[in-house]
Design goal:
single chain; Jelly Rolls; nine-stranded mixed beta sheet; globular
Length: 190
């Protein structure tokens, strides 16, 4: 026998509803050697654009430079002394403006929000967690890439959808992220 249904009870909020589907959150733990996120295609940035993402560096990570974001004319990395440095804009860490473009990056293993304002032209964002020749890739994770232009989100890639595997799809915009050397073993709970 089916339950009683009444439009009046439904309007009053007494009708049974299905519970919302809970989306499980995961992060892709980069291996610091061969794995990183490649944006397809790279994103051309304009003066005033804001790049933000959440990241955590492994507590026991290598002591050379580790790269969070890079592209043409753009790099955000952590040096051996755990100081963040960057080229091409103003840097914010957990919402605090970072002066002189260098600041201490808090203890590894703790997630932080990095936000970066583009202050000069000819910048592109092409990779997250990759590096220049001779330096370490990020040992840790990056998630929730957001790019705003004039305060409006124009690109967003959560980087947390285990079911999508090596190619993480954008929720805003048309740029996706692909991980070379992907295996299912990259996923873990944040």
């Amino acid at each position: 026998m089916s339950g009683l249904y009444s439009p009046i009870l439904a309007q009053a909020g007494f009708a049974k509803r299905k519970a919302a589907v809970v989306v499980e959150q995961w992060v892709a733990q980069l291996d610091s050697a061969t794995q990183y996120w490649q944006l397809t295609p790279p994103i051309a940035l304009e003066i005033g654009d804001e790049i933000s993402f959440h990241t955590a560096k492994d507590a026991g990570a290598a002591t050379s430079k580790q790269w969070f974001a890079s592209g043409s004319g753009l790099r955000i990395n952590v040096q051996a002394n755990n100081a963040i440095e960057e080229v091409g804009g103003d840097l914010y860490l957990d919402g605090e403006f970072v002066t002189n473009y260098v600041t201490n990056f808090p203890t590894g293993g703790i997630e932080h929000n990095l936000s970066y304002i583009i202050t000069s032209t000819d910048r592109t964002l092409s990779t997250l967690g990759a590096s220049e020749s001779g330096f370490e890739k990020l040992s840790g994770y990056i998630k929730k890439l957001i790019i705003k232009r004039n305060g409006i989100v124009i690109h967003e890639i959560p980087l947390t959808n285990k079911a999508q595997g090596a190619t993480q799809l954008a929720t805003v915009g048309n740029v996706n992220a692909f991980m070379p050397n992907y295996t299912d073993a990259v996923w873990r709970k944040p």
